[in-house]
Amino acid sequence: MRAAHPGGLATELYAARGSRLAGRRARRRAGALGRTGRGAAPPTGPRDGRPARRAVAAAWLRRALWTVALTLTGGVSRSGRLPRGGCVVVANHSSHADTAALLAALDARHAPLIGAAADYWFATPWRRRVCRRLAAGFPVRRTGGGLTDLLATAGELRAGRAVVLFPEGTRRGDGEDGEVGAFHRGALLLAERAGVPVVPVGIAGTDRLLPKHGRLRRSAVRVRIGEPLYGAVSPDRARTAVAALTARARGTGRGGRPPAVERGAVQGLRGRGGPGGGPGR
After folding, report:
1. pTM of this structure
2. Co-location of 63 and 26 in the same domain
3. Residues 245, 143 share a domain
């Protein structure tokens, strides 16, 4: 009987060990596919209808940052609150500071996402980093494909997050009479498809704080959160609600600071709880 060669025995043992390892890897892959579906990525979002803890923690940090920043430049106040669960927030848009005002005013437990113009805020690497990290921004194309970008956030809405959009599509600057412009339908279609309400919001003071094509200056900022609108919401209905809230916000403390009871960082941090339309620049 021919003795096994030492080198051949080592080769066989190595091959057997490799086969066992390959079998283990195959079983692990099969188990992963069984849990997530063939070819599907593992789930990353929450399963209980609430935003992920990491997103909420980041939202609290952004809220604190922008509350302090706005307090130092004149003060920020809010009235109203978001409903439970996901919602699409629609607001008037006259300044880059609108995003800061909303992040300071909205409930951090909704982990707000801000729709931002892809051709402006995502045009360069540094703007993209600023938008994503400091404003939780996501890109919305204004030259075709914007509705697809919006509808891609439906899963976040169902998970309980707030998606903030500016349906005017751009900032209304000086010389544009201060009225709320016509609304595009994208934000409203997103809410309808995701089965969540539309929440109108009026912002005042940001056009004086940071005017379009102007420099930063001191001004009080006021944010009014309206009652949610359920079902199919038309652009005219949403615009009317936002315009009314904006007018009310402008009529409060117009010549100076917001009411003392709502002034400053403490109020901002204590707040209760926490081409389709949308992108602003």
Report:
1. 0.72
2. no
3. yes
Does residue 15 belong to any structural domain of this protein?
Answer: yes
Residue 171: per-residue pLDDT: 74
3-state secondary structure of 40: coil
pLDDT in tens, 85-141: 999 999 999 899 999 999 999 999 999 999 998 998 999 999 999 999 999 999 999
Q: How would you class 69 by CB atoms within 10 Å of its CB: exposed for 0-12, middle for 13-18, buried for 19 or more?
A: middle
270 class by beta-carbon count within 10 Å (0-12 exposed, 13-18 middle, 19+ buried): exposed
Which among 64, 79, 149 is positioned nearest to 56, based on CA atoms? Answer: 64
Q: Are residues 38 and 153 in the same domain?
A: no
Q: How far apart are the first and last CA of the chain?
A: 85
Q: How many domains does the chain have?
A: 2
In CATH, what number is assigned to the domain containing residue 241?
Answer: 3.40.1130
One domain for residues 12 and 88: no
> Tokens at residue 254, please?
């117009």
Pairing of strands 221-225, 198-204: antiparallel
Q: Are strands 221-225 and 113-117 parallel, antiparallel or unpaired?
A: unpaired
